[in-house]
From TrEMBL:
GO terms for molecular function: hydrolase activity; metal ion binding. It comes from the Bacteria. This is Acetylornithine deacetylase/succinyl-diaminopimelate desuccinylase family protein. Keywords: Cobalt, Hydrolase, Metal-binding, Zinc. It comes from Psychromarinibacter sediminicola. Belongs to the peptidase M20A family. SUPFAM superfamilies: Bacterial exopeptidase dimerisation domain, Zn-dependent exopeptidases. Its cofactor is Co(2+); Zn(2+). The keyword Metal-binding applies.
Amino acid sequence: MDLTARLTAEIDARRDDLIALTRDLIRIPTLNPPGKCYRDICEFLDARLSASGFTTELLRATGTPGDSDRYPRWNIVARRAGAAPGDCVHFNSHTDVVAVGEGWTVDPFGGEIQQGRIYGRGACDMKGGLATSIVAAEAFLAVCPDFGGAIEISGTADEETGGYGGVAWLSEKGYFSPEKVQHVIIPEPLNKDRICLGHRGVWWAEIETHGRIAHGSMPFLGDSAIRHMGAVLEEIERYLYPLLASKRTEMPVVPEGARQSTMNINSIHGGAPEPEADFTGFPAACVADRCRIVIDRRFLIEEDLAEVKAEIAGMLERIRAERPGFTYEIRDLWDVTPTMTEREAPVVTTVAGAIETVLARQADYVVSPGTYDQKHIDRIGRLKNCIAYGPGILDLAHQPDEWVGVDDMVDSAKVMALTLAELLAT
Ligand SMILES: [Zn+2]
């Protein structure tokens, strides 16, 4: 048997193990926020990977956002060095899952299996991908014990809340540097035949309009911050949205609707605060003296952040010039620059070749509308040879009755094992 046939047979033989591992991971309820059970899942992965010959480190990102003695941010980095020098291939998965939400028909932490699908919160995003990378690495080690280089597998905290207690922290500590790691695969659920090269950029900001409080029966004695914000919203509709729709990207973003600049108005608050849920009285009659919106602007690799900010600033200045009494403030909250790995990068061409071998079709190249941990590996780690590739359907992420298909995981494990063989087999 040739190497490809031996690796695929080895993965097929481990199908039940892959199912069991995925179910075990789903049963550890690593909800974030607040960031539960990180230590538990790291200890579980430690036992598994130590038994497979990996050297492991459990690392707490002390002092990062959300870290506390009650909810410590634990990460695991496992490394298995080969018999000869060579490249290091690193599989990075986040271990956290988002809130369960309403609408489930199965136990979200039961790991139930029905008709070839494993259900649970985090099944596709991304415990299925984590399990797939582990089984792929173990199968490769069984077939190619004398490989060169190293394999690393990490399970990291907080991706769903920005990754600051996970990949960002590890990148700052040097775990993702081009000297240490040469190829990174993040098994996010992008589908088994798609390679995700990167993501669009993000800018979050808060805009506040100012007014003057007065009695609600005599609004003419005050100045309504909500009416001023109305003027901002009108200008966003009239001017900004058509402008954003006109900006198209060469990035292969999926879904198609995200192939342009977009902006979501995340929240609006103004005037009297929301009453407590059990409050039964009436609001006080006041003119709103402040109104705030939070905007979530997603931008393209063809745009730059300064220009994105200048569009909004220019729009607000125009309103100020035309509208009596209009004053405002704008505050930056967060930004991430877009990133896109080149199609000629070694990890991209290798995974594309493995997809062709396993699935007998060409790989699709995509870019994610939202960011994920690649941002930290790129910006802090300065490691460009990085993609997201893993089993599962992205649309199911964060939904009720989230699931991952067993056949998809098996196929993806074959792609990952072949990728290891291409990059590391001697
Ligand atoms: Zn994810």
